[in-house]
Amino acid sequence: MGRKEIRRSMPLLPISIVMKLTDLSARQIRYYDEQDLISPARTEGNRRLYSLNDVDVLLEIKDLLEQGINIAGIKKIFHMKTVQHHIEDEKNSGKINSDLSDEEVRKLLRQELLQVGRFQKPGMQQREFPRFH
């Protein structure tokens, strides 16, 4: 992890600043934390502190919601990104044959997505995020 990434992952920002940066309410931000989409650090007084990476994720969540994707879909997208990074890391470290074609990698990702979908509760396809007014 480079110095820039370390700085971006440092938990420094209180929720009030994150609200201003993302134009999200405290309730929305806490909800995305409860959904394990972000994982802010906690102070000794149990206050959440957010990193710049957390802000990026919140902005991405906001964009995806505006595109009509529900929380279940967002979780799948984030899971697929994690799987893709894991596959790339293993290819780079030599744990996976680096001769895998892009098509083979996509096939692995598709299989992973189907596996995730299999464990999805019925009814999760409906809009899952709460209404914030």
TrEMBL record:
The keyword Transcription regulation applies. Pfam families: MerR_1. Gene3D superfamilies: 1.10.1660.10. InterPro entries: DNA-bd_dom_put_sf, MerR-type_HTH_dom, MerR_fam. Keywords: DNA-binding, Repressor, Transcription, Transcription regulation. SUPFAM superfamilies: Putative DNA-binding domain. Residues 12-80 form the HTH merR-type domain. The keyword Acyltransferase does not apply. This is MerR family transcriptional regulator. It comes from Heyndrickxia acidicola.
